[in-house]
Every structure is written in C-alpha cells, then in structure tokens.
Amino acid sequence: MCSKERKKQLSVDLIIIGITMVIVLVAVLGIWGNGLNKFAYDGTKNIVLRVAVIGICGQFGLAGLGITIVCLIRKERFTQFGLRIKNIVPSVLLSLACCIPDLIYCLIKGKVHFWCPFWDVNTTPEVLASAFPYNVIAFLITAACWGFFEGFNYVVIRDKISEMYPSKHRLWDMGACVCAVMCIVIHGVIGVTPDAIIEMITTIVLIYGMLIVRKETGNAWGCIAVFFLYWNAL
Length: 234
Description:
- The protein is mostly helical.
- It contains eleven helices and no strands.
C-alpha cells in the first residue's frame, strides 16, 4: 500500500504536471496562438528553428515539460518508468494491437492516408522535403516531441496515479482510465453523434489498452511505439 507521505508526494507531482500543462496551453493558445501558427508556416524561416520552437514551446510544453520538471525535482530517472529491454517485444506488439479498433474505424471513414511517421504533424512534409542535414535534425526533434514525450507523458502520469490508487484487478487501472479521458478531452474526441461516440470509444481502447500493456509487461516502449508508428502516422 502507498503510505500517506508517498500519496502526498504523488499528489504534488500530479499537480505540478497539471499546472504546467495548463500554463503552456494558455500561453500557446491565448498568448502566442496566432503568432506561433504564423511562425510555423513562415517558409522564410529555417525549418529546424521552426520545428524546434513549435515542438518545444508547444508539444513538449504540453506533453513533456511537466513530467521532466517532476523527475528533476524527485531525482527520478526516466528508466524507472518502464524504459527497459525486458518484455519490449510483447509490449510493442500488444500496444500496437490496441490501435486496431481505431484503425478499422479510420478505414471505414476514409481517414487513412499512406503510412509515414508524424505525417499529420503540420511541418513534417516540409521537413522531409528539406535538404540534409536540416531534414534529419528537424525530424529527430519531431520524433522527440510528438513521439517519445507524447507517449511517455501518459506513462508517467498513469504510473503515479496508479501508485496512489492501486487496483487488485488486472484489467482495471485508475491511472490508465484518467489518461484515456485526458486524451479524448485534449484531442477533442468528444461528441454525441454515433460517429463521435465510436471514435471516442476507439481512442479510449487505444490509450487505456496501451497503458494496461505497460502495466502487465512492465515495459513502456509499447506506448511510445504507438506514437511513433500509428498516432499521426496514418
């Protein structure tokens, strides 16, 4: 069982993560919104600089900065959250299997394009068309912000919530549930029409499922693989 002191510490960690996300969201949308968007599409600016600015100020700020601050304060290593070799294959394969319902829905709705990691990130087409080494540098920044940290952010949040509220049931997990709800709220996958409800359910299955896989395998690379190979890729 989680001690009272440990619960207090975990609560503070989650508050720090939440406040950081809100501050970045307000700053990006409310203060820098239009300017940041114009900067992202300004072809006169260096592509590496543009990807770095929107990636770090926007994506990393929302899904990465909070957990990084907490890990620095607590002196926790990222490897403590399942970044390990053991069980990496079942973790990746089972996590990707959780994408199948969403993939089927997207195929039926005609929302699937050719496969390319991070293709749905606005700057990726321009990054791939850029000259070496700018294309490689910009793509690595994209992979870090929209791939690694977006997936790992869910892992850290889930781990901390689930440590506070452990479950005796293998397929029920409070942290995974909160993260799934958080995902549909952030990405606006909410609605009352049949299509919106189905999309919401498939998104919940994806996020909740990959985090249950992380719980069962003890490996977090599957969650990150989802954001490298599926999310924004099809």
